[in-house]
Structure formats: C-alpha cells, structure tokens
Amino acid sequence: MVPMTPRRATRQVKVGNERTGVVLIGGGLAPGQGPVDREQPPLSQPGSHTPEQRQGGDAAGVPAPVSVQTMTSGFTHEIDKCVAEIHKLTAAGADIVRVAVPERKDTQALPEILRQTTVPIVADVHFHYKRALESIEAGVHKIRLNPGNISDRAQVEDVIRACREAQIPIRVGVNEGSIIERKDKQKRANELASVFSDRRHGAMLAIMIAKLEEYLDIFYDNNFFDVVISAKSMDATLVIDAYTEIAARFDHPLHLGVTHAGPQETGCIRSIAALGALLSRGIGDTIRISYASDPIYEVEDGLELLWSLGLRERSGAELIACPTCGRIQVDLFTLTQQVRAKLAEQVQVPMKVAVMGCVVNGPGEAEGADVAVFAGDRKGIIYVQGQRVATVSEHEILDRLLHECLEFQERIRRGEARLGEKKVQIIPPDPEGELGSGWEKMAAARLTIEGK
Ligand code: SF4
Fold it and tell me: How many C-beta atoms lie closer than 10 Å to residue 261's C-beta?
C-alpha cells in the first residue's frame, strides 16, 4: 500500500535482537542528506551545535514501517504479572513494549522478564540515572530518558557510554510539564516568548525545542547519534507544532504521542487528531497512543490508525459497518460488536467484511467488501464477493457470516480467491418512491454482480 505522503527520511535506529526480532525505527537518510532546515537557528544557548553539525544519516533507502509501542500498566517487579501483560500486548500487535523502572527492585526483575519475553523491551527511566545503567546491564533493548529530570551532564554521559557499549539506542522524551525546573520556567518563557508568537502555545513550544537542543548537544559532543526523539503534551495542537518543528530541525526518527490524553473514549480523539495530522504529512516513525485504560486499547487503536492511513499492511479483517438510521430492522449495534470480536479472534487474512443495516446506502458503502451482510425485515442476505450465498434469520446472521468469512479465508489461503476481486452492485432505489429498508429489492434479487 502506498502512503498518502512520502515519509520523512531520518537516521535509522535498531531496537531488539535476534531473539526478540529487530524493530527498525525511521530510516531512509543517506550520509550528508537531511531534513534539517538550515535556516532555523538554534534556540538554545550560544555554543549549541548548528543544524549542519546535527545533520547526517546512515541508512539510505526507505524508512521502516511505523511501529506501535505501548507500556505495561502493572509493577515491573511483579515478574509474572509483568510478563503476562507483555505477552498480552505482544499478541495484540505491539512491536515494542516499555516498562517503568522507578526502583532497584524493578531493574532487578528485568533479566527474568527479558528471558521470558520475545519483544523488544524499553526501560522508562526518570530521576535516577542509575536505573538506566542497571537496565542496560540487565539487557534491555532501549532506554528512555527525560531531560527534565535527568539533566546532569556527567550522569547523561554515563548512560550514553553504557548504551554505546551495549549498542542500544536512547529515546529523549521532552514531555511538556517535566522538562523545565519550576524556578526557571517563567524566565525562559519570557526569553523565548517571541520565537513562536504566532502559535497557540508558542512559549512552551520554544522551551521544548531549546531544551531538546541543549540536551542533544551532550549526545553529539559524545558522538552518539542513536537517538529517537519525542515531544509529548496533552494538548494536540502543541504536539503537532512541536513535532513539526523538530522534524525540520533534527534528523532523528520521531516517537509520536499525546501524553495524559485521558480515557480511551476522549483520549482517542485527542491522540488521533495529533498523530493523524502528523503521520498524514509523513512525520512520525513509531507511535504510542496513551490512555488511562487497559494498554491493549493503545495497541489496537495505534494499529487501526496506521492501517487507516495506509502506513502498515493490515493484518486481520477490516470491518465496515453502517451507522444505522430509521430504516434499520435488526439490532445492528449488537451484531457489529459480535462480528468484530469474532473476526479479531478467528480471521487473519485482511479481508473486508461489511455489516449493513439495509440496501439503501449499504451497497455503496460496502463497495469492495469481500463478505457482506445486508440486513432487513429481521433477516440478513449474505454475499461473498458478489455472490448471494445465504438468506438467514436475524439470530443466524452472526454464525453464518462468520462461517462464510472462515470459508473465504481458506479459499484465499488455497489460492482459489483473491481479496477485493469482485464487488456487489445493487440497483439504487427509486428516489421518487417509498424506499423503506430496500428489502423488497433485495428479496426480488434486483441486483447485478460486477463482471456478470
Ligand atoms: S445502510 Fe441503511 S440502515 Fe444503515 S445507515 Fe445506511 S440507510 Fe440507514
């Protein structure tokens, strides 16, 4: 699938090893090339590296597919529960899983957790740089540092040295709210207020960029470029502006996220508004959607976002369902949820499955569906690639639709059918007449099959 906008080229970072599988983040930037806007002066203190000094790549070609990350929600030192959660998130499709290591007992648990899991693990380190060193010693595959709470140059250099020896990358995450000391905040805000005065959160944006520049200079001074950048906020507009600026100023791959987005119900909107805007413009190499909910939803929604934008090949069925209206004659909400759950469990082939309430708009909206049900009059008519295969009562729709999906999946696997090959077309209802549910037209088989 071709994405709508070419991905931004970056340096490339590798996470994981032979045992876990290697996840590549970013890429496509050849030495000497770069997305860095040379007209952008550094915002940080004099002596900062210039854009030219920050520029350079190591991996010509195309960027790696955008990966999906999440974070465990339980205690890392509760090894069995942590491993079980990692397994659950991996099964849901997480490419990389991050764990918190606030205490020594958490880093002590890491060797056993790493032994029992097969996905790249990132240690999330705040305040105590020794937790980073202990995590590296334990064998994690990446470290996350927060410039706001580990800023001592000597400590950062110790972590850089250890990561270089272990050949693992570091994510520098400049979350809004934790990046600057309270006493310094107003002074820096005043100094930088004019830089992005046309932006909604211009002062904070400038502080985030300046802090990032200062922090990354430590890495560049130590000739360490194996870096991923994130710049999260709970405000979607600040997230969009921050990553857009960072994409123009640095050539490192970007980890996108909206932090403290809230529960899934509202956090989903906030996250997708920001990440969708950035990804659709080619910005972003790995994502974490953050919810105050079970992290499995972060994985599911992150994957759905990437699939929707054509940034990842879909695995499993794609469900199309009508929003329902006054023409509905079956319980479509329940049916749709049941179909979704069954497809997630049993279908691995990326077929399109449509669940439509009637035939008035259904055929157009379900165009291209491999398997479809059009409901009406407490019944459902099921199609497989344009062929009407069954008419069943409402309570039989779920089982029969799933049966047809599984049969179709086997035909695909045997090479006897191809995805999206045939479409159903139904004669539009007479706009002057009584539309009803359209069931009569279906029952009378007033339809044509493309190619027949
Ligand atoms: S498919 Fe039919 S029932 Fe569903 S929203 Fe469209 S017109 Fe209404």
Answer: 26
Quote the tokens at residue 35: 């997305």
Residue 352 is encoded by which pair of tokens? 């399109």
Strands (E), 154-254: 170-173, 227-230
* Integer Cα distance of 90 and 67 in angstroms: 12
Tokens of 21: 């599988």
If you measure from the C-alpha of residue 64 to the centroid of ligand 1, how many angstroms do you get, rounded to a whole number?
39
Tokens of 429: 């209802």
Residue pLDDT, tens place only, 341-352: 999 999 999 999
What's the pTM? 0.84
DSSP 144-165: EE-TTT---HHHHHHHHHHHHH
Comparing CA positions, the residue from 96, 82, 14 lying closest to residue 298 is: 96
| Closest ligand 1 atom to Cα of 323 | 5
Q: 3-class SS at 227? A: strand
| Ligand 1 center from residue 331 Cα (angstroms) | 12
Task: List 172's β-bridge partners, or say none.
Answer: 145, 229
Residue 143 structure tokens: 């470290």
CA–CA distance, 51 with 59 (Å, rounded to integer):
19
How far apart are the CA of 424 and the centre of ligand 1, in A?
16
Read off the DSSP letter of residue 395. Answer: G
Ligand 1 site-directed mutation target among 361, 434, 442, most atoms within 8 Å of CB: 361
For ligand 1, whether the C-beta of 361 sits within 6 Å is: yes
Distance CA 68, CA 57 (A): 23
Answer whether 358 contacts ligand 1 (Cβ < 6 A).
yes
**Is the four-CA dihedral 156, 21, 299, 98 of positive or negative sign?**
negative
Nearest ligand 1 atom to alpha carbon 326: 8
* Ligand 1 mutation target, pool 355, 358, 441, most atoms within 8 A of CB: 358
Domains of the chain with bracketed CATH: 12-308 (3.20.20.20), 318-449 (3.30.413.10)
pLDDT score at 220: 93
Q: Which amino acid belongs to residue 48? A: S
pLDDT tens digits for range 143-168: 999 888 888 999 999 999 999 999 99
What would the two tokens of residue 431 be? Answer: 């706009």
Q: Side chain identity at 235, as an amino acid letter?
A: D
Output the CA 347–ligand 1 centroid distance in Å: 26
Determine whether the shortest distance from the Cβ of 322 to ligand 1 is under 6 A: yes
